Amino acid sequence: MPRPYSMARRALLTAATRERVLRAALELIVALGPDAMTLQAVAERADVAPGTIYYHFSSRDQLLAAAYDMLRVEWEQREAWATNETAPAAQLRALIRSLCQDYEGQRALLSVILHIRGSEELAEAIARVRHVRRTVLTSILEHAQRLGLLRLPLLRAVALAYTLTSFASWQNLVEEMGLAPSEVPGELSEMLLAALFRSC
Questions:
Q1: Which of 71, 111, 130, 138 lies 20 to 30 Å from 79, alpha-carbon distance?
Q2: Which fold has domain 69-196?
Q3: Each residue's pLDDT tens digit, 115-144
């Protein structure tokens, strides 16, 4: 029977290999586009045997979805803005700042990956990311509603906040309105707070 420390080490190595494969897939999408992201190309970029890819992922679409899921999990683990001890306005500002930082850092990737069609697995991964954002926004705005701060009914407030905190809205503010990425969090926060809150 394998020793416990050997099993733990093996699990860590497996997780590290899986992450290397996922990051290689994302790098390929940005560098060469989604059509170039074949399992063979990912294996070469990650410096693993093709069999290793098939051990972790049964298809290209499953690999793509897992890579996008990894980004969601990293974002959720990194952020701690959703606590009811903080004023809703401060929570919303922190969430917007966090989202905008991710949008700026992943701009090239998101510009490509959000336009990929025909992958049910990727569509589900994107839906999970959007669900997390909607859930956090709902929590913040429910808190504001309990405090009597919301100008709009809750569902409308969530719909407006959800729309304006999307990557597409961030991209529009940068590319169409000419804002510097560093300006977007402040501008977006002020727009949303003015539209949603009675007082900040």
A1: 111
A2: Tetracycline Repressor; domain 2 (1.10.357)
A3: 888 889 999 999 999 999 999 999 999 999
The C-alpha atoms of residue 138 and residue 91 are separated, in whole angstroms, by 12
Six token digits for residue 47: 């410096």
Q: Tell me the C-alpha distance between 49 and 21, whole Å.
A: 11
Half-sphere exposure of 61 (CA within 13 A, CB side): 11
Total count of residues recorded for the chain: 200
Residue 34 CA to chain centroid, in angstroms? 18
Tens of pLDDT, residues 48-77: 998 888 888 888 899 999 999 988 888 877
Residue boundaries of the structural domains of the chain: 1-57, 69-196
The CATH-assigned architecture of domain 1-57 is: Orthogonal Bundle (1.10)
Single pTM value for the model: 0.83
* Residues sharing a CB contact under 8 Å with residue 133, sequence separation 6 or more, in sequence order: 99, 162, 165, 166
Domains 1-57 and 69-196 share a fold: no
